[in-house]
Amino acid sequence: MQEREGPRDPADSPRITAAEVALSNDDLSAAITLLRMAAQEFRGARSEDLLLEAQILANESSADQQLQTLANRLDGQLPARLQGRYWASIAAAQRDRGQTDQALRSQWEALQAARSPQQRLRAEALLWKDLQAIPLDQLMQAESETWPADLSAWQALALAVRPRLLALDGAAQGIAEWREQGNTKGVSELLITRIQAMHRYAYAPVKQVALLLPLSGDLSGPSRRIQMGFLAAYYSSNAEQRPIAIRFIDVGANGLAPAAGYREAVAGGAEIVLGPLSKTAVESVLSGAEITTPLLALNRIDPPSSSPSPNVFQFGLAPEDEAAATASTALALGYQQIAILAGDDEWSERVTDAFVSALHEGGGTALETQRYPSNQDDLSGPIRAILNIDDADQRTERLESLLNIRLKTEPKRRSDADALFIAARPNAAQVLIPQIRFHDGLDLPVLAPASAFPGGSGDVESDFEGLIFAEMPWLIPNAMPASAAAAYAELVSEGQEANQIGRLEALGIDALHLAKLIHILKEQPGLNYSGATGSLHVNKQGIIQRRLEPVEVRNGTLSRLLDQLP
Q1: Element (H, E) at 419
Q2: For helices 80-96 and 44-58, angle between their N-to-C axes, nearest 10 degrees
Q3: pLDDT digits over 523-553, tens only?
Q4: The CATH number of 10-157 is which of 1.20.1070, 1.25.40, 2.40.128, 3.30.390?
Q5: Which string of b and e fits 42-66 if b means at least 16 CB within 10 Å?
Q6: Pairing state between β 272-274 and 208-213
């Protein structure tokens, strides 16, 4: 191997000094040219090293394996002027592969190697971004020995700030708490200022929101209720945080086609478009318009796209979500083996599939499914079948035949079921539950999706006594978050009857708040917004998922089961 010349001071070559100045000013092209020119001033290995430096800079955007190969040719001894850029390039490649933890560590090395204020500012911003990409629960569980020692202050800052980002002054509150902890080493005041500025920008009011609703035609009634909820949330919120302008566009029978309505909203200056309402209309917009402005659809299409558009979000009151939440409630209550009664329609099938899927995922067992006819009131047949009462009667008849005597017996239901799930809407549930009780089901817990319960009060609701499900906070006494409670008071003040305010108003209320918070929720998937329709978060497909609260019908009203759950 050719012997390398001893190191020379960079001042020996004005071009090397000039290259360092160019690098500190992020003038990459000039730095590469100067290093190549400087290589001509030296002989042998020293000249090769300078050419390699230029090659590394020229391949900055290449995969990290290529950069590592080039670095190895320098025996792992990269000049200090390249260390920051080298580690930043490694971190960028790891981010592209979704290796968030590795990217964080590499970006930390880039920060330590920064040689100019500009490089440090950029490295700090990227390190903070990497800390946002790590799931909160993982960030909380990270053991100190797995992190570079001085990164602990950054970790503490992220843990103090991130959980508060959905609040107007959340960043400032988190930073104040972090300062009180006393570990602020290595975090610049300029970064703190930038974090607060970014949060203020993210929380700035939306200039214009457009709603695509079928205000004419068959869905005009539900649309008006969503509209009322949206406006109640608007007028009950802080005036400084309201959208500056709201536009309602009819995409119903007498209005525009859904895709045309979206294009009209974008052309009119909307920063986010809410709606449309039906699955068909949502599909029409997604297939008929280029989604350049964020769209928060008020329904969900199935199945979700494997490569969703970053501008498309889906938010609806899907009964499948309710069924899955009821399955989680059942498991939390210790009900592992569950029999199922489902209607003979497509809606019941979807609800049942969602319940069974969530039950199996949680380790439970679906014992058996019986179908009941949706057009009959006497459902004793499928009820007796799912409870195995017919089998017990048949055994009794066989014994009587063998013994030639009359036996005094009472029908006994199956003993292996911890609970019974009914896939039913209110009318069917009102028929099923009393008959289940009559057929030896008095001590058998009955579960259902939330949409099985009609709400309100009176004699009708007595038929639902003991029913267990998971419900949105909006419909549970004393469970509304503050923003929802303010909107509810606004609706009542406008003359709405309390027992006529339901789920669709809650959907409109949360739609307004999501219009402002959707981008924060997208960037912080570990965060949950406490909404009227549930605790909301955004998954990777852009679907707004709801966490509902376990309840039981007691004396005709909903009673929370939180105290009974582990």
Answers
A1: strand 419-423
A2: 40
A3: 887 899 999 999 999 998 999 999 999 999 9
A4: 1.25.40
A5: beeebebbbbbbbbbbbeeeeebee
A6: parallel
Q: Could you tell me whether strands 446-447 and 208-213 are parallel, antiparallel, or unpaired per DSSP bridges?
A: unpaired
Say whether pLDDT at 3 is over 50. Answer: no
Domain 320-472+552-564 carries which CATH code? 3.40.50.2300
Q: For residue 347, give both structure tokens.
A: 């809606």
Q: Which helix (H) or strand (E) covers residue 370, if one does?
A: strand 365-372
Q: Strand, helix or coil at 248?
A: strand
273 compared with 301, residue with greater pLDDT: 273
pLDDT at 407: 45
Which of 245, 273, 269 is closest to 258 using CA atoms? Answer: 273
Local structure of 562: helix, strand or coil: helix
205-314+480-544 homologous superfamily: Response regulator (3.40.50.2300)
CB count in 10 Å sphere of residue 183: 15
Instruction: Supply the pTM of this predicted model.
Output: 0.80
Closest CA to 210 of 536, 512, 529: 512
The answer to whether 10-157 and 320-472+552-564 have equal CATH topology is no
What percent of the chain clears pLDDT 70, i.e. is strictly above it?
81
- Measured CA to CA, the distance from residue 561 to residue 566 in angstroms comes to 10
pLDDT tens for each residue of 187-241 = 999 999 999 998 888 888 899 999 999 999 999 999 999 999 999 999 999 888 8
Say how far apart CA 510 and CA 522 lie, in whole Å. 16
Is pLDDT of 185 > 80? Answer: yes
| Residue 245 to residue 344: CA distance in whole angstroms | 46
Domain limits, the chain: 10-157, 205-314+480-544, 320-472+552-564
> How far is 460 from 75, CA to CA, in rounded Å?
81
Average pLDDT over residues 89-106: 85
Residue 458, by phi and psi: left (phi above 0), alpha (psi -120 to 50) or beta? left
